[in-house]
Design goal:
Helices cover 37% and strands 17% of the residues. By secondary structure, the chain is α/β, with parallel strands linked by helices. The protein has a four-stranded parallel sheet, covered by helices on one side. Helix 4 (76-85) links the parallel strand 2 and strand 3 (90-95). Helix 2 packs across helix 3.
Length: 121
């Protein structure tokens, strides 16, 4: 299944510099919840599905939650901002069609998905 052009266009420019501060503040508590739920578990590799403009990945990196963070995102503007942040532990962020994961099964120790399901049709 492919993402329709209408959906692609709707998300292509979803993110811009005007919302980064607001999203970064909100993501801090989301990232704290992830860390709290994981408690003493160490994750070698973590994927965030629907990573937006990278705010959760930013905090997870700041707190050294995992040295191998990855993200997939449907929005091209989100990916551009993620890359511009130069997140220390971020290894890769890929454009995702919303259907076919660009990684094989069982590739990551942990997959995070925050505020994504409400966007699924």
């Amino acid at each position: 299944m492919q993402v329709s052009e209408k959906v692609k266009d709707a998300y292509a420019n979803q993110y811009d510099q005007s919302i980064i501060e607001w999203r970064t503040i909100g993501a801090k508590n989301k990232a704290k919840n992830i860390v709290a739920l994981a408690k003493e578990i160490k994750f070698d590799s973590v994927l965030e599905v629907g990573c937006g403009e990278g705010s959760i990945l930013h905090w997870l990196s700041e707190w050294n939650f995992s040295k191998n963070l990855h993200g997939v995102e449907i929005s091209e503007s989100g990916i551009e901002i993620v890359k511009s942040k130069k997140i220390k532990n971020l290894k890769e962020v890929l454009l995702f069609d919303g259907y076919k994961m660009p990684y094989p099964d069982n590739h990551f120790d942990l997959v995070v998905c925050s505020h994504v399901l409400e966007h699924v049709e």
